[in-house]
Structures are given as C-alpha cells and as structure tokens.
Amino acid sequence: MTIEATQDNLIVGVVGAGAMGRGIAQVAATGGCTIKLFDTRIESSKEAVDFIDNMLGRAVEKNRMTADDAKAAMARIEVLETMSGFADCHVIIEAATENLDIKRKIFSELESIVGDDVILASNTSSLSVTTIASSCQHPERVAGFHFFNPVPLMKLVEVIDGVRTAPDVADFLFALGARMGREPVRVADAPGFLVNQVGRGYTIEAAHLNSEGVADYVDVDRIMRDAAGFRMGPFELLDLTALDVTHPATKMIYEQFYHEARYRPSTKMNTRMEAGLLGRKTKQGYYAYQDGKQAVPEEEAAPEYDGRAVWVSQANPETCAQITELLNKLNAKIDNGEEPGEDSLIIVAPLGIDATTAALEEGLDPEHTVALDTLFGLDVRRTVMKTPVTDAAFVASARGLLTGDGVPVTVIRDSAGFVTQRILAMIVNIGCSIAQSGTATPLDIDKAVTMGLGYPHGPLAFGDFLGADRILEILISIFEITGDPRYRPTPWLRRRALLGESLLTPES
Ligand code: NAD
Q1: pTM (two decimals)
Q2: Ligand 1 site, residue 24, Cβ cutoff 6 A
Q3: Where among 269, 295, 321 does a domain terminate?
Q4: Percent of the chain as helix, strand, coil, to the nearest 5
Q5: Is 158 noted as a catalytic residue in this protein?
Q6: Does 126 participate in catalysis according to the annotation?
Q7: What pLDDT digit, counting tens, does each position of 136-171 carry?
Q8: Rounded to whole angstroms, how far apart are CA atoms 449 and 158?
Q9: Which tens digit of pLDDT belongs to each residue from 64-85?
Q10: Considering 152, 169, 188, which residue would you say is the last residue of a domain?
C-alpha cells in the first residue's frame, strides 16, 4: 500500500453526519486530516459543521487547543453535496444509518467513484463487516472502524478485520485511529465485535435475574454499584442507552451466534420495549425521569437487631472466618455449637448455589437459613438471600444484625448464584470465550472493556481478581442446578482455573 496514515495530506471521507459521523470528522480534523463530509440530508452536514465548530470553540476556552489550531481544523472540513466529491479521498469512513441495504448501496457507489487502492471502513456497531464487504468488488480493502459515542470523549476504537480484509488495510486504520487521538484495538469480525459482546453479560444477566423474580431492578443496581464497584447499575445503563437500541442489538448478536445461550435476550426486556418504556428518552424506563432527574425509590429502613443467636456454616472455613469476624464487630450473639441451636439464625455463604440447596446439603433448617454473599467482601453493601421458606422473623434478625454498622443490606430471593456472582461469572466467561475464539488478544479484551464500558477491570483481570477457581465453581454450580447451557464454563476459563494460571495467559 502506498498511502500512509501519518502522511500530511491525508484526505478522509466521512459518509453520514449524524451523532457518530460528526464526532469522527471532528477527531480526524484535529488529527490533521482533510475531511470531506457527505450526508443525504445536507442540513445534517451543516449542523455537523456547526457542532464541530462549537466543540472546538469549547476546547479552546478550556485551553485544550489553540484558537489557531481550531481554526485550521475547521478549514480542513469540506461539506460535499454529492458522493462524487470523494474521488480524491485516501480513506472513507461510513457512518450512515445502521441498515445493511443502505450500507451496501453506499459501498457499491463508493467503489464506482474511488480508485482501487482507497480504503473503505464502516462504523457499523452490529452488522457483520464481512457481510458488508462481501458485496464489494474489492472486499480486501473493507474493514470495520468502530468508534464509541460520544466520539471525542470515548478514546477506544475497534479496528475490525473482516474475513477477507487485507492485513495492511487494518494496519492502516490502526495507525489512523492513533492519529485521530484514539486507542485502537484489533478485533476479528464477530457478532458484537468485542465490547458489545461483553456488554451483553452485564445487562442481560441482570434482566434475567429480574425476570426470575430474584431481585428488583433498583436492588440489582445498588448491588452492582456498591458491592461490585460498577459506575452505573445495569438498569440505569439500559435507561441511558434506551431499550429500542439495546434490545434489537442483543437480538441481532443472539441470532448471529446461532442462538448461543450466553447471549439469550430477555423476553421481559422485549415487552418493556414494546410498551414504550425505553428509558430516559421517553421519561420512563426502569426508573421515572423528571427534568432529566432519575426518581430512585428509598431504601426500606432496617429493623433493630433482636439479639437472636447466629450460627455460621463451616462448609468453607475462609468465608466462615470472614463472616465471624464481621459478626464479632457487630456484637452479634454467636452460636458456637457444632450444630445450630433450635432458634438460631443460620448463615450460609454459597458460591453459585441457591440458599435452599446450601441449607439442605448441609442438613440445616431452611426456615431458619439465610445466605450471605461474600464474593466482593462485606464492607460496602451486603446481600442476604432467603430460601422460599425462610421465616420472616429470621430475615428481619439478619437485616437488623447486618446493618448494625450502617452498611446497607439488600434482601433477595433464592437464586443459584447471588446477583454479583451471576453477573460477574457471565462477564468473565464471555471475556474468556472471546479470548478462546481469537477475536482479540487477552490484553486487548481487557483494555477495550475498561475503556469502552468503564468496568472496574477487564473481564479477564476481573476473573483473576475474584479468583478464576471461584468463577469456575460458580458457573459449574449454576449450570448443575439450572441445566441452562448459558452457564457452562468456557474451556479457556476451565483450563486456566485448573492450572492456577491467570486468565490473561495466552495460548502457547
Ligand atoms: P444517526 O442517525 O445519528 O446518523 C446517521 C446519518 O446517516 C443521518 O444523518 C442520515 O441522514 C445519514 N444517512 C442515511 N443514509 C445515508 C446515505 N445513504 N448516505 C449518506 N448519509 C446517510 O446515526 P449514528 O448514531 O450516527 O450511527 C451511525 C452509524 O454508527 C451506525 O452504523 C451505527 O450503528 C454506528 N454506531 C452508532 C453508535 C451510537 O451510539 N450512536 C455507536 C457506535 C456505532
């Protein structure tokens, strides 16, 4: 290839001047490229130019760029009235409406306008890059260039190799991404590419937990924010991205994976979408919104600890010690008997097992038993799971006792795996399946997810942090109890957990 992404006079075409196209044009212009912008709606291109001018003006005010540089960047942007103006471009980035027919038509027209060595990239978020390329005369010059919204703030860009993409085409886009101030990662074409695949683990598992009646959406959000350290709960996030965007994308990923159970959409999400409960943009999603403010139901006040004796399961000595240490701090009356006293509250701490199974396996009274989630420690929020028959007075004792130091407690219904255990095991397992399929390198998987989704860790490092052996145990138990292939552990996870190796360990 004769074109260099770093060359001075690089001319970049952008098709589509909507939310993404204008962001892409902005960062390409500030990266020193000349931009040719086309949209079937000329007003859209004009609005885009005003938008970029405004954004660069703000950057100047904040001393992030000089007024001269902003002016020079604006002077490099040209609005086209027809696609024929793309003739002298070196690379064209398509960011038009997400529709295969529209994109195929655009690519076919571009091929009739530009020379054979011009690179064509698509910013599609859910269509196969290989499929878009397949109708082109030169599929080897077509690749995915997947930016995130809002482009100027989101540094990540996925460079996607379609099956027939020439390696130097993706190399070029990688270098161009860097020139545009992005952090590129190289991804092989796959449904949802990399980031959108992992993102399903968070929201869909949460939706399944909610559909099964395990926990209300507010409680799932509280647990994932406070205990697991995510910036936003999964339902807040769904409200922000809107169900009519997230649910169809999920369905598409599920279809493209030939109904892989890990990506199975939630029927309840579908009915909520049909009902128009889309999120912030319709002022009613999982939460209600007034003047852009989310209405969050208050947490129920906990009762006082009634002084009931507490017996802690010794099935796992480590968690038993962890819980006993907390109970001592809370001045609990501890039942040290080999077996629980007749009226003692029983605490079990299972991994991937429901409270019912844990109680029965240990020969404990399920009416007196609650389970406590220890996966993320017990310091910020505590989750108590009851069996279907746990006596309300015993649940109240547990709540009263465990909120004694001001740490909030969430009570959930019985489930094979607590909220954190199920969601994290799903995220880690999907990350492992991406590594297994060679869609991206282990390091890029974690880099892309932390940058693109803002999770506290990438899926593989998260697995290492929580213990790959524990994640494996959670998945094996959930799979055994539910029989749902959604929870079967990937070979990548199983082997590394058995070997005691980091989940970031590549194949030798
Ligand atoms: P948008 O609706 O804001 O903008 C799309 C623009 O394309 C519109 O201005 C429309 O007039 C124009 N358009 C439609 N047909 C065209 C054609 N034949 N030629 C030229 N322009 C045409 O959409 P968007 O959010 O900017 O999304 C654009 C692409 O980026 C889609 O493929 C989408 O999947 C992808 N994407 C979107 C996001 C996001 O969060 N919005 C994130 C990543 C990728």
Answers
A1: 0.95
A2: no
A3: 295
A4: 50, 15, 40
A5: yes
A6: no
A7: 999 999 999 999 999 999 999 999 999 999 999 999
A8: 11
A9: 999 999 999 999 999 999 999 9
A10: 188
